Amino acid sequence: MSLTLQDVKRIAMLARIGLADDEAARMLGQLNAVFGLIERLQAVDTTGVEPMTHPGDMALRLRDDVVNEPERRADYQAAAPSVERGLYLVPRVIE
Q1: Rounded distance, CA 74 to CA 83, Å?
Q2: Is residue 14 part of a domain?
Q3: What is the spatial distance between Cα 50 and Cα 85, in angstroms, rounded to a whole number?
Q4: Would you say residue 89 lies in a domain?
Q5: Count of structural domains, the chain
Q6: Is the pTM of this model over 0.70?
Q7: What is the pLDDT of residues 43-89, one digit of tens each?
Q8: What is the mean pLDDT of the chain?
């Protein structure tokens, strides 16, 4: 697929982009180069190639999920004005 100069001017008008004639001619060359690259990519035979989520083979480094700090909830809630069953009680702001 290749564009014409009128196509580029119409696209620019639809996108509300002001293009001078020399800019439109330059854009025509650049857009046609992009379309040429897309056509070359579509011509590649990808039969048997599975889609990938990332171009590199990655494995997440996970750490063991272990608790490494002591339970201090009671210490932290001792200074709170109002606590019930381990939860902080706050004044109602929406009625």
Answers
A1: 10
A2: yes
A3: 52
A4: no
A5: 1
A6: no
A7: 999 999 888 888 777 778 888 989 899 999 999 999 999 999 999 99
A8: 91
